[in-house]
Amino acid sequence: MSYGLFAALYDAGTCFALIDSRERRDYVAGHWFGSTNIPLSLFSTRLGYLFQDLDFPIHFLDWQDKASAEAIHQLKAIGFRNITIHNTQKPAMMGRGFVKGEYVWSKAFGEVVAHEIDLPEVTSEQYLADYQDAQLFDVRPTAEYQDFTLPKSQSLPNSLLLANVQALKDTGKMSLLHCAGRTRSIIGAFTLMASGYEGPFAVFRGGTQAWQLDGYEREHDANRLFAADHEASDAVANFLRRWQIPATRVTADGLGAFVADHKTELLFDVSDDAATGQPLAHGIIKISGTNLIQQTDRSIGRYHVPVVLFDQESGSRAAFAAFWLRCMGFGVTIVYRDAPIAAIETITNTVTSNIANNIASNDAGKDTRVVTPFAATQLDIWQKDKIALYDFRPSKAFKSGHIANSHWQNIGAILGQTPADRPIAIIADNADQGHMIADCLIRHGWQIAGVYLWHDADFDMATLASGGLDLPLDEPALFAGRHHGVLQDARDYLAWEEDLPSEIDEPIHDLWCQELATSPKLD
What we know:
Layout: H1 5-12, E1 17-20, H2 24-29, E2 31-32, E3 36-37, H3 43-50, E4 58-62, H4 66-78, E5 83-87, E6 98-99, H5 104-118, E7 121-122, H6 124-130, E8 135-138, H7 142-147, E9 154-155, H8 165-171, E10 175-178, H9 183-195, E11 201-204, H10 207-213, H11 233-243, E12 247-249, H12 255-261, E13 266-269, E14 276-279, E15 285-287, H13 289-294, H14 296-299, E16 307-312, H15 316-327, E17 332-337, H16 350-363, H17 368-371, E18 373-374, H18 377-384, E19 388-391, H19 395-400, E20 407-408, H20 411-414, E21 424-428, H21 431-443, E22 448-453, H22 487-503, H23 506-518
Parallel strand pairs: 1-3, 1-4, 4-5, 7-11, 8-9, 8-10, 10-11, 12-17, 13-15, 13-16, 16-17, 18-22, 19-20, 19-21, 21-22
Antiparallel strand pairs: 2-6, 14-15
């Protein structure tokens, strides 16, 4: 891949996704701006989440290794028909569109806003000297606030900001918005500015990380909840008119017809601040608006595709998310619902069906004993026979509890290894993952004794081993200690955030600046 590919694809104005299938640690260490990370180890779950149409234009970054070749094989085997492959490599230096870190799309935009709009900021030193009477508000989700926050801070998640604008004004005090670092406090402050908020406010520069770097202690287990889910329907409607964001209302009986008319669009329900991507009826994904905009390059991951946000009551959560997505270049519509949308157990669409069908087709030509999941009792037999147990679950699950003497493994890493002389047994999270791994390893010369699908109920959890992994491939290593007392990581993280506008593709940076300069939302 050459410099400028993403900017050229984006400038063309047609829908696309730029996929990087490396594992998370490698992706975070350095990737092309605008690319969506779908690790090979998560293909069986993430592809069905992001894509419903096998004809969707996929541009794939081929790092010219076995893992990339396997990812291309899997995409084609599942049935994706519109794949463009780009040979790529790591450039000699960072910048010019090759960036490090996570969620760079929203973070870079947040920094562009901070630089272009000149949002008011207050440092720790200024706060202690001049702003002790101001109110501190932590704009992260309440669970993160309760984990750690600034002393005296109250919880006011960004998702509830618009519902509490009048309550903020009624305090008669200055509002200092903060998060752990910079981005989400910038998001909150810019939203207040765009709403026409007349009270004094500022960003607490650097959030809890800057506070620690200045030698002060964070507060843990705080529970001061300022935010209320006020019924502010009229105010929200005014915000949407101000920002020129369309909204409509759909009844329960009309939901199916509405979705059928919008089947090429991205459908999200943002009415629950705790949602993390659960499937709902009609192909709708339930996710908090905060996560949707903070993790745009992961939760949306496709460009020039219209977005529909479902919400209930006043719709303030959807209005907040829509405003920020609109600023970042996404077309957004809000749909009001009078009742919750029914939940389902798994995502079901053409892609997920083809994943299952591809597995079944591959299984037909194999020894079915390999691909038929075994009961937990088989684990003891394998261990007595000295068959190595390779656990392919996410590293977080492995660290929480795993079978003693089992080995954590990752499909993206094992393909670079020489096949073992003896059969191995696979431990997997689910059937799709287990069968895909077995199929892949057999084609690369491995012998498979069988597959076990993990169930906590099969074990006395107290007897399982825990821990045992250091910087696993499916977790980021960059700035990993910034929230855990590693001050250099916090210092480097804040510097990285502020430098992002100079690192991304220049045409995208210029496009954002133009949008901020010409948009009517601040009139």
